[in-house]
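In practice, a research group might receive sequence data for several interacting partners and want a quick structural hypothesis before committing to experiments. The following worked case mirrors that situation: the sequences arrive first, and a predicted assembly follows.
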Amino acid sequence: MSHLQITTNFDDSRLEADALKYRASIPSIHRFLEEKVGEPTGWLDAPVEMTTDQIDRILNISNEIKRNADVLVVIGVGGSYLGAKAIQEALSPYFKKHENGIEVLYVGYNLSGTYIKQLVESLENREFYLNVISKSGSTMESSIAFRVLRQYTQERYGLKAAQRIIATTDSEKGVLREIAHAQGYRQFDIPKNIGGRYSTLTSVGLLPVAVSGIDILQLLEGAKRAAIELKEMNAEKNTAYLYAIYRNVLHSRGYQVELLASFEPGLRFIHEWWKQLFGESEGKDKKGLFPATVNYSTDLHSLGQYVQDGNPILFETFLHFKDVAEDFSIPYSLLDDDRLNYLSKKSFNEINQIYKKGTILAHSEGGVPIIQIDLKRLDAFHIGYLMYFFMKACAMSAYLLGVDPFDQPGVEAYKKKMTELLVVETTAN
Amino acid sequence: MSHLQITTNFDDSRLEADALKYRASIPSIHRFLEEKVGEPTGWLDAPVEMTTDQIDRILNISNEIKRNADVLVVIGVGGSYLGAKAIQEALSPYFKKHENGIEVLYVGYNLSGTYIKQLVESLENREFYLNVISKSGSTMESSIAFRVLRQYTQERYGLKAAQRIIATTDSEKGVLREIAHAQGYRQFDIPKNIGGRYSTLTSVGLLPVAVSGIDILQLLEGAKRAAIELKEMNAEKNTAYLYAIYRNVLHSRGYQVELLASFEPGLRFIHEWWKQLFGESEGKDKKGLFPATVNYSTDLHSLGQYVQDGNPILFETFLHFKDVAEDFSIPYSLLDDDRLNYLSKKSFNEINQIYKKGTILAHSEGGVPIIQIDLKRLDAFHIGYLMYFFMKACAMSAYLLGVDPFDQPGVEAYKKKMTELLVVETTAN
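A structural hypothesis for the assembly, expressed as tokens:
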């Protein structure tokens, strides 16, 4: 049995008819992906091809950081930030965060002067390492944050600063690679054929995640399992391809928004990562589902009203893990003045499951199409599996939509315009 | 001059024509809102009518909590959670959070067993108070969290537990009111004519926010200022009504998604609060703009691609504060190996402003309609002003759309169904 199940509330003869043209395209896209000629599809085999030496190097440096620092400062934006943050938030305890690792702070993903000033101040009296992550090495947010943090590291550690800076960057070129080489920083390579938003399960995501105390061997094991299971060409047996078909069918029926819904608050950044993956891969040529997210039951008291009764432009994808880390029973009360004793044999997670069931029932009755993605347990293995699943599904889905999953022309155009504007604005003053 | 400016990139003769029918409806809706007959519009005058005694009581209890506790645990969901959380995140430092107050933790806004177990464990060895907030007193998430925390408070503080529990609930009825009365908890009243999502600027939001160290007098001052300025019936002089017109015009032109965009990471929960306010007020009768949010520049590396080049179903509303708490200059580098010295006279916030300008230019060229909301400074006064502005704009906007801004039939229907399902599921086992 697969480690991930996918079901829908719209599986009928009409689905078969609407899915036909997508099913027909799958074999050729599948072969194209597998052949990888000139396409940035290095991520497809990365979990399987990663060597013990590569993993050991990540673990060794991670252990060195944990021994010698109170905090790891990760500098990155987009694909160099969201994946690690997502895994960390999903798998760390909510309050005592650093039991098996140390604190990991993220910077260089925004341009707030308040944020970077207060971040640097928070490093006073604490020992730290930097991990600067940038494929190109020239992205504005992370480049200027690195300039600040690098100077601060030199002030704090003098000649030993270079030992505390790890650069994760393109395996062949770029300004960060040059700097790291000249300064003697240790480096992790991002393979040329793996784009930013597909890079989480390489050293990009693995080093920060390992430092935060998460078991990266299990994470990779899950991704490897997914890489093997989802190599299947037959869409009936490949959940990633099924998901790609379902969302394209719904889009072709006129739905404009896909709402990813979960019932565990720690999944909030998995949602953000998913939004980047699908939004950047599919949102081009005036096409693409708009990716949005809700965290239930919280958002039943917010967007729930809209989903139930509002403009019927959306469908929901429920992402659910059956088992989670811990649970808590509703206590019995002698007084029962809140009249909740009828729940006192139940646990919170059991009630959460009932809410999931009730929400799907209510939204189904409200006419909302629903895709369900179910996994067994919220742990490193299944998060690794899920991320690989989403990447493979995204690549297939974008090709089914008729767009290139691996470029980002709008971002490039905007970056170019931005650089021009910066030169004008800085020379004007 | 108003404390908030509103501009658009689509202000032409076509706008005049499209806005005509909305402008025509404004006077009668305005009078209807002002007359408040039987409508839950108590929030309209709440900031002006709040007495010194009421404010002093909040400040006195807040000071007592700060003196006697390390942490305030706020129990609430939806309108009893998002507003306070939003203000706190917007106005607190990013790292050293509790300089003028104490830590405020939120619970009862989700059903995660992991979350509540780890929250209770985090209270060990720390002194705490509870503030349970629920208009009805019977919302599932907050009710069962209150049962747990109340028993834990009794274990920890014995006969003195009641002194550490503050109940904020309906001024007339409900199970929480009964419990608070019987147990001798101190109470804050939520006026009958103020609904959950319009209640932030009452004791619902003010007590937690005051405990976290934020100046609630300034917050109320801003809201009061907005209440006075936005009493204007002439839409040309009332920015809330202008915003209501603009978004309805764009919706009538076929845009389905409104994307609220900001450039300061701390505004993330202001976005969440805005989503609840507009989503729950307008998402009914198969109508309403779908409210979504982005935090730039972070999300220029995520949804930015979609906004620029994707399916043209959205318009953007930029929420911008000119001045923020702190700033940081890009340092000069002798080596200049990152080639960024051309920026070394600039500060992060200056670059952030240039990015805002560049983003608006790029998205305008991409054909995205843009509304700009500008305020002077990210501080308590302007957050108070902004929240009142959004509430007034939302009420007007929903009426212009032809829906009731103050009900939530979908949430009620779902709550009823959920309670039935819970009874079935709990008696079945």
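Before designing any experiment, note the following. Residues 7 and 63 of chain B are 41 Å apart (CA to CA). Strands of chain B lie at 4-8, 71-75, 103-107, 128-134, 165-170, 186-190, 257-262, 290-295, 314-323, 370-377.
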